[in-house]
Structure formats: structure tokens, C-alpha cells
Amino acid sequence: MLASVTMCDYFDAMKKLSPMRYEDVDLAPAAAVIQELTSVPGLGQAITVRAAKAHLSGLLEEVAHGREVVITSGGKPKARLVPMDAGAGRRPFQGTREHLKTMPPWSGGATAEELVREDRDSREW
Q1: Residue 45 burial by CB count (10 A; 0-12/13-18/19+): exposed, middle or buried?
Q2: Residue 101 and residue 95: Cα distance in Å, rounded?
Q3: What is the pLDDT along the chain (125 residues), one digit of tens a residue?
Q4: Is 47 a member of any domain?
Q5: How far apart are CA 32 and CA 58, in angstroms?
Q6: Residue 46 CB contacts under 8 Å (≥ 6 apart), including other chains
Q7: Domain that includes residue 66, residue range
Q8: What does the alpha-carbon distance between residue 35 and residue 51 come to, in Å, rounded to a whole number?
Q9: pTM for the structure as a whole
Q10: Residues 65-91: pLDDT tens digits?
Q11: Where are the alpha helices (DSSP H) in 22-111?
Q12: Residue 116 belongs to a domain
């Protein structure tokens, strides 16, 4: 019964293919995004939310290469996509320790867990 089944070895055909490099990838999505971008006075490059959803990958590539894009909805700006800089303008939050030093020391009383439990128990179901 198995003698009538034709078998095909796909692995030999796959071995003959050369591996794809990143440079070989077609950049058509980026070109489609560029066609969707419009210049808006005072805002710069803008794209509608519908077009941004349709071309999100290409849009992110454009932003990663330094282009700032404003996303509009109903003709009004809703969001701005800007490239990520490696830590530019960011600093770790340091206020907690100083804030805790200004707080009065705990002098007893109910804990947060006790207050939450009391609130839950007091509700009528």
C-alpha cells in the first residue's frame, strides 16, 4: 500500500537556498509609510491613526531613523512619536528617601492591612 505513495524530500531544496540577510529585506513598508505622511504646518510630519495602524512596523522604522511623526485623529494631533535616545534627559527618581525623612515616625495604630480588612468587612453584600 505504501508503495503507491510519492515522497518528496523538501530538505534538499531548502539546503540550496542561501540564508536571507537583513540587507536583502524589501523596504516597501517604509516607502508606503512615506507616502502616507503629510506635512502639517506647526506640527511637522503627520499621519492619520488609521494609516499608522496599517503601517506600524514601517512607521517605527522611520521613527527609529530619527524622524518625528505626529499621529492625528479627526484632523487633531493626538500623539507624537519620537526616537528613543539612550538615556537622554532621564534621571533616576531620588525623591523617595528624602520624602520618607520628612514623614513623622509611626506611633502605632492600625496598619494598612487592618484598615483594608476592616473596610471590606464593613461592606454589606
Answers
A1: middle
A2: 10
A3: 455 555 555 555 555 555 555 454 455 556 777 788 888 888 888 999 999 999 898 899 888 888 899 999 988 999 999 888 755 666 766 677 778 788 888 788 888 899 999 999 998 76
A4: yes
A5: 8
A6: 37, 38, 39, 40, 69, 70, 71, 72, 77
A7: 24-81
A8: 10
A9: 0.47
A10: 888 999 999 889 999 998 887 556 667
A11: 28-36, 49-54, 56-64, 95-102
A12: no
Residue 6, amino acid: T
The domain that holds 53 is classified in CATH as 3.40.1620
Name the residue with cell 485623529.
Answer: 73
Please check whether residue 115 lies inside any domain of the structure.
no
How many separate domains does the chain show? 1
> What does the block give as the cell for 49?
491613526
Q: Which of 54, 88, 86, 90 is nearest to 71 (CA)?
A: 54
